[in-house]
Amino acid sequence: MTSNDLVVVLPGITGSTLGVRGDDGSPASEHLIWAPSAGAVWKLLTGGQSILKKALPEGIGDGHPDDGVEPVGLMPDVHVLPGIWTPIRGYDVLVSALEKQGYQRGTGGKPATLIAFAYDWRLSNRYNGERLKTVVEPALEQLRAQGGAYADARVVFICHSMGGLIARWYIEKCGGAEVTRKLITLGTPWRGATDALEQLVNGVKKGIGPLSLDLTDFSRSMPSLFQLLPEYACISNGGGWAKTTEVSVPNVSTAMVADAMAFHTDLQAAETARPASRTMTHMVVGIRQPSQTTVTFQDGHAVTSQTFGSDNDYGDGTVSLTGAVGLGEALDTNLAVRVPEQHTNLQCNQFVLDQVQEILTAQPVRRREITDTNVRAVVPDLVTAGQPLKVAFDLEADDPGDDPPRKAVTVSVRDAKGKVLATAEPKLRAGHGVATFADLPPGTHTVTLAGSSPSSTVRPVTSTTLVWPEPSR
C-alpha cells in the first residue's frame, strides 16, 4: 500500500557513490572514485582513483570545488572510510522495501513517486540542502501534474544519519516546508555526535593503528563532517560541560567549528519558530548501545566517555541519545520511536521498516513481536587481518537491580554476500559475554547477535566491521 506522495530517501555520510566525468565526456558512473564493496574498499582508497585525492580546498564554505566529482547513486553495500564516521550497511534493503510497497522511480516518462537522492557527502549540508530543492520540486510538480489523487501530493523524506540534516536545512531554510508532509529520520544526529569531534581532533594518521594511509587532511577539509560536531555541551571543562565554541578545540579550524555551530543553531531557531516542525517529524533513534557522549581534551587529543558524570544515556553506538533527539525535546519525548539497534543497521532493521511503512500509509501494519531482552554490543569498526575480532556484549535486565537474564546468545559473522563465516555461542558471566573470531578474511563483514533459537526472547542487534588486509612488506 502506498500514499500518493513523493518519497525521497537520503543516505548518511559516505552513503552515496561518487564519480568523475571522463575527459571524453563519458558519465561519472563509468569513473567511480567512491563505490567500495567488500574486498574493493582499500583499492579505492589507495589506488589511482582514490577519493582521498579529492580533499576540498581551504575556505570552501558552502560552495562546490568544481573538481569534477559528481554523486551517482546510493550505496547498495557496506561502506566505510576508516576513521571517518561508522561502517554503514547499504540502502538497497530500504529502497527495495519501498518499491515492494508500490513506490516507483520515474521510468518511461512516468513521474516518480520514489527518489533515491545521492549527494556529494564531502560538501556542506547547506549546499546539499539547496541542491535537494532543485531535484525534489521539479519531480513533485510532475507528479502533481497527473491530477486526480496526485494533485495534492507532497514530499515525505526518509533520512538516515546525516541525510536528516540535509532534509532539515531544505525544509526550514530553502522553502521546503511548503511542500513537505513528513520528515522521518533514522539515527540522525539532530544535535551532533561526539564521534565526529573525536575523529576531527585526533585524525587518522599514517602508521597509527592498522592503517597505512592518512585520512586526516581529507577529513578536516569536509564541512559536512564539521556539521556533525555536537551542538550540545559535551566537553569536560572545570567540573562542568562546554560547547565546542566555548573552548579551544585542538588541531582543527576554529572558523569551521564556529560555522558548524551556526548551522545547528540556525536550524534550531527556524524549527522553534515553526510549530509544524513537530507535527511533521518522526524520529527513529537507536538505543541501549554503548555510545560516546562526552569528551575530555588531553595533550591535544580527544578522549571520549560514554557518560555525563554518572549518567549513561546510551544511543545507537555512534550517535548518543543526547545527540539523536532534536526539536528541543527531552530524551523521553513521545516524538521518538526507540529501537535497540546499532547506527549501521537502522535503515535495514525490519521493525524500523515496519514503522516507516505505517508512517507513510497511516494504516495498521502487522509488526514483528518485540521481544523482551535487549543486547548491548561493542563491535570494533576495524581490525587488521590476522588479528582476532572480539565482540563483547551484555544482556540487559528487565528492571534495574534485577539479575542479568540467563539466555543463550549466538554471535555470527557474515561476509558481504551473506555467507556465514563463523558463529559462536559464548558462555555468559553475570550477563556478559565475549565472542572471539580469528582468521577472518579481509573485507567488510556483518556481525549479528541474536537468540540461539527462533523462539528466543533476545532482540537481535547487527553491526558492521572491516577487516583490513595486512600491509605488504
From TrEMBL:
| One Pfam short name | LCAT
UniProt lists compositionally biased (Low complexity) regions at 452-465
- Family matches, as Gene3D superfamilies: alpha/beta hydrolase (3.40.50.1820)
Region: Disordered, residue numbers: 450-473
What InterPro entries does the annotation carry? AB_hydrolase_fold (IPR029058), LACT/PDAT_acylTrfase (IPR003386)
- PANTHER family reported for this sequence: LECITHIN-CHOLESTEROL ACYLTRANSFERASE-RELATED
Q: What is this protein called?
A: Lecithin:cholesterol acyltransferase
Species this protein is from: Terrabacter ginsenosidimutans
